[in-house]
Structures are given as structure tokens and as C-alpha cells.
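Page 42, continued from yesterday. The earlier attempt failed because a stray header line got pasted into the input along with the sequence. Redoing it now with the clean sequence only.
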Amino acid sequence: QVQLVESGGGLVQAGGSLRLSCVASVSIFSIYFMGWYRQAPGKQRELVARIAPGGSTTYADSVKGRFTVSRDNAENTVYLQMNNLKPEDTAVYYCAAARLGVAPGYWGQGTQVTISS
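This time it went through. C-alpha cells are written below.
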């Protein structure tokens, strides 16, 4: 069983930065795609960024150039560096692990990110 634990959320002003962390209980990055998702009130959960086992990354258009996903294999940790934050980035952010071609099978508990204007 894989457990994912996020941290790093909080309240910041627009234009500020936050770094989210997601620690996995076991070493899975070599076979799982690690994604950061977010869900704002009244909206569907959306994929924000993802890092593949090989290290390639993808981003939602809304965060390109502002967010960076990375990982530390030795620490079993995935990061989401978020810069130039906007009020519309306010959401609960979740870390998830997925095998290729299937929906995520493991989710973290989520961390709240709130951006004030």
C-alpha cells in the first residue's frame, strides 16, 4: 500500500510563491507517474502538473511558466514550486500516483492553497 502525504500549503498574497511537497511511503517514482491535481470550490478536479518515471514533465496551460514539478528520488518526494500565484490558483492541491494509461490509484489527503488579491 502506497501512502502519499502533502504539505506546504498556506495563505499567500497574489504574486507570491509556495512550494508543495508530497512524500511517498515507498519508492515508486520509477514506475508511477506523479501528478499534482487541484480542486477549487464548485469545480472539477484538474491535473496541474505531472512528472513521468523518465523525468519528463507536463503542465496545464494555466500554470505553464509559473509552476515547476520536480522530484527527489532519494527522499521519495515530489515537489510543486508555484510562483507568481494568482487568486484563481486557490484550491485544495492533491498529490497522486498513477500507472501509465490508468487513473491514479493513490491519492494524498490534500493541502489547501489560498491566494489573496
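Notes: The radius of gyration is 13 Å.
Reminder to self: strip header lines before submitting.
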